Amino acid sequence: MSFAPLQNDTFLRACLRQATEHTPVWLMRQAGRYLPEYCATRAKAGSFMGLATNVQYATEVTLQPLDRYKLDAAILFSDILTVPDAMGLGLSFALGEGPKFATAVRDEAAVAKLEVPDMNKLRYVFDAVTSIRKALNGRVPLIGFSGSPWTLACYMVEGAGSDDYRLVKTMLYQRPDLMHRMLAVNADAVAAYLNAQIEAGAQAVMIFDSWGGVLADGAFQSFSMAYTERVLRQLKREHEGVKIPRIVFTKGGGLWLQEMASLDCEVLGLDWTVNLGKARAMVGGAVGGPGKALQGNIDPNVLFASAPQIETEVARVLDSFGRPHTDTSTTGPTHIFNLGHGISQFTPPEHVAALVDAVHAHSKRQRQGV
């Protein structure tokens, strides 16, 4: 497949720790319910899955935030739970509610049935990736993604979201053998899924370990990080001669940042509980040396404040990272601006414009030493 050349590669360069003219910005869940045009398209589609499985609609909503804001990347419109859905667990979304599975995986027999799904069952995702990449026409790069093996397991065992993760943690402690078996299948499925997205046109891929932070120390390393590493080991590092950056985001994972530096990925995403300056010192590396690019990490609720307050908080986050390196002849510490979690559906759209513009303006001033 041939696609239009990239006009704005700032995000990809920052992922690879290359100097950029400004700090790139994109937002987790940037195509979503806070946008009236998204709500209109979703109403036409009839349901969330109707939206996600329709290539035309998925393309339309992925591009909607880019038509409003000067974002530096697009992210595929899909859901983190498409893989277990393809395993036959029956994913659905009631309006205003989170995801639910018709079949939960809670015993030995259910775990024994699990296997890496036929990727043709996810063809709608790969077709959407190709369609979005064509529709972008080189404006910005396209990010593909999946839930992490542990996060998928949480939903597969609980059957839906959870307040206490009682069922999945019971399996983890009572039958760790079953949990390891499920996580191994999940990891191999996620790797195959992300590689297929790369082949379809994704220019970077992200693993959302949304529930890694609910684990105890020790359990995180064994049941989350080890299987994220299993995914990363299998991922394509480049496609058609171009590097494909890999991003890992563990919500609540700041405690284990030092250990996560060993992950075979280019970028570590951080939630709002982590100080970017400390993270940079810990894992960002020096100019000319190895290290991780950092992504994050403003509190999404900042977007409910007025524009001047948003600008103040943007400057605070950028300043906490510090001045990015500006030497174009080598690599060094870089930052990709994002939220510390997904954008709230109640966010005023004009506040997002204030945030994006503030990131670009302040990060340019930083580089100029102003």
Strand content is 5-15%
* Helical stretch tally: 15
CATH C-level class is: Alpha Beta
Distance between the termini: 44 Å
Strand segment tally: 11
CATH architecture call: Alpha-Beta Barrel
Please state the overall shape, judged from the principal axes of the Cα atoms. Answer: globular
- Count up the domains: 1
> Main sheet?
7 strands, parallel
Strand/helix succession: HHHHEHEEHHEHHHEHEEEHEHEHEH
Helicity, as a percent range:
40-55%
CATH fold topology: TIM Barrel
Name the structural class.
Answer: alpha/beta
Poorly predicted tracts of residues: none
As laid out across the biggest beta sheet, the strand order is 1-4-5-8-9-10-11
Q: Average pLDDT across residues?
A: 96
Give the assembly state of these chains: single chain
Specify Rg, calculated over alpha carbons. Answer: 20 Å
